[in-house]
Amino acid sequence: MKGPEGPVEAAFFDGMTARRWAARIAPARDGLSLVILREGAAPLSWRFDRLRALADQSDATRLTLTVLAETEDEAPRDPARLVVTDPAAVAWLLRTRPGLMRRDLRAGTFRKVALWLGGAVAAVVVMLYVILPGLADYLAERLPRETEVAFGRSVMRQVEWMVSDENGADLACTDAEGLAALEAMKTRLVGGRDLGYEIELRVFDHEMVNAFAAPGGQIVLFRGLIDEAENAEEVAAVLGHEIGHVVARDPIRLTLRAAGSTGILSLILGDVTGGTVIAAAGEHVLQTAYTREAEAAADDFAYGLLNEAGISTAPMAGFFDRIAKMTDLLPEYLSSHPLSAGRAEAARMNAAAHTATAPVLNAAEWQALRGICKD
Q: What is the pTM of this model?
């Protein structure tokens, strides 16, 4: 091969058969191409500017060369391979052909990659916001109740861990008189109704002003909400609202969506074990990010329970008035909940149309409920 000493020996593979051809190679007279001579075959001419070395089969002592296709209609590279092991030839090629080790992209590759990525993103968006919600709704209506209860308990264990203190202490409130008062409130609200679930009530000793329903009929109130309430009727309104979510199977709908979306995202991001699915479901339940329609329906269900039990809904309006100062900072169309001010007005209208017969708890029971976390 001219450059060092003239033509040199090499090995040629045509890419069509397993035959190894003994070849001699040298630069063409014009210096623009590499001529490959084989006995009994026509000479080949590979242009230097289209020569490429296969990175995984080439180093400073050996080069496996191929040649780029001449047109876009052909395969990206000629299937033939040329193996050069002559030290002087290898050194000369590496020194004089800086583009030899370059990785090439065909024209239009970036456009194709961009289209592929755009399609992939669109597919994920459709999956997360169209297919998964529809599938979650479908499964929520058909999931066996015992399966839902078992799943809800798994979510509850995650929630308990999330709200526990740094020492992992159990935050469940266990004062017997307080629990009895809470059970009396539930009995007054539910009466003889068949809700399809055994409602299990718990109170966590946490300052959060919140309540939520987990799948399977489990409802949690936080001490902060009881502390914030001015009377038992306000707590009863919140409890009736959460029972409304249970009956509508909103918690299982929410957790199925959370588990599904997190499962897809964890696969995309590399968490193939799915270890974050239950954690995300617990977080979503804790945040209770239901739709405005689900929240409004739960309010209506609470009105029905309160009205049938002869419990005034006027305190419900007062509760919404107070939390409106904290929650109504965004327009309603940007929020997952209806505006608290509008909910307060709806509660006032309901109170005007229905007559209360008796407080939901007597004074002693109300004080017991407020002290449910004293133990």
A: 0.60
